[in-house]
Amino acid sequence: MSTVFVVNAGSSSLKYQLVELASGASLASGLIERIGQVRSSAKHKNAAGGEAQEELHIQDHAQAFGWVLRQFDAVGPSLDDADMIGVGHRVVQGGSRFDRATIIDGRVQDQIEALSPLAPLHNPANVVGIRAARAAFANLPHVAVFDTAFHLTLPPAAYTYALDRSVAEEHRVRKYGFHGTSHQFVSRRLAELVGKPLGETNSIVLHLGNGSSACAVRGGESVETSMGMTPLAGLVMGTRTGDIDASVLLHLARNGGYSIDDLDTLLNKRSGLLGMAGSNDMRDVRASAGAGVEAARVALETYTYRIRGVVGQYMAQLGRTDALAFTAGVGENSAETRAESLAGLESFGIVIDADRNAGTGPDGDAKERRISADESAIAVWVVPTNEELEIAQQVAAVVA
Ligand code: ADP
């Protein structure tokens, strides 16, 4: 029963999961937060219900791995018996260099670090995690799985910004796209669900979480996606604006006294649902709208209007669309958001069945279910994403 240890390192956090390849099951998972602060919090749990939770000072990611290894000893499962074949690292930005999961050696680690100007919050943290994990699991192959890799099949027309070409080239400015691991996993599963070979299936995946992005997939390859050079672009998100006229930044800098850092915080952390309606959680915003708060109602309309626009755009660009999937926290759980996003698209061949969507149809509230009506030309599904499993499977393919 081979396993892969999956690592997702943030600047002050470490998330991990031990994934069993044959079943796809998570044998153990955990999260360490506030690394480097006085009181860090650390949690570990295993599939048998064993748990450990502690508040303690964890100085850095190396110490965090020390804590994790102790929990595997104390709470289990035993890593000695886990037949680990490798360690998979989620890496946010792979630039135009990494078009697939790649075994990490010193050179690859340097290249990931060199992409930091394109993802200043993420890549340096990913490298810190890689360094600590390579020390903790010195005898295993380590593999980087990039959020951007799936989108390197975008055609130039989709990834090019209409910017002075020399500036774009010098600063590596282009659309990279993110959430690639999720879009790849969900689009592959969606093709299975609609019973068509992947190579002949055209689909649209709507990954609606705290961060959100859409992806058009033609025959298994990403051909368009809504995030851009960074994860700021595209749909309205929990705390990010999504698309916005770039001149708004110039306006705020010239007339509002905003610095570069102020703008970064405003666009990435203070906007989206949070900025418009006071919470980045879809449940709160729906509750406010239900209680008659006008700003929350407008925020929801803006959120779903933008999704509908992207669906229309991708249908035009795909030419023929077979299937559409909703995934991630909002996409998997919010029937209202799904219904509102696709409302009025019946003449485009998208007909939602209200009962199936609400979880009161024949399949009940099965996590994975078809929500379109039988007569809908385009099959619409809820497909739970599983980025850890996708990473584990890519690691297995690379080390094999
Ligand atoms: P991340 O992008 O951090 O991985 P997730 O995909 O887990 O996020 O999505 C988290 C978001 O999903 C929450 O902020 C919330 O808005 C939304 N969400 C989670 N559960 C529900 C639910 N039952 N109904 C509506 N929205 C939900």
Overview of the structural elements:
The chain has 400 residues and is of the alpha/beta class. The chain folds into two domains: 3-146, Nucleotidyltransferase, domain 5 (2-Layer Sandwich), CATH 3.30.420; 196-387, ATPase, nucleotide binding domain (Nucleotidyltransferase, domain 5, 2-Layer Sandwich), CATH 3.30.420.40. The chain is 38% helix and 20% strand. A hairpin with a 4-residue loop joins strand 1 (3-9) and strand 2 (14-20). Helix 1 (61-74) packs across helix 3 and helix 10 crosses helix 11. The longest helix is centred in the C-terminal third of the chain and has 25 residues, at 294-318. Bound molecules: adenosine-5'-diphosphate. Residues 209-211, 238, 280-283, 328-330, 333-334 line the site of adenosine-5'-diphosphate.
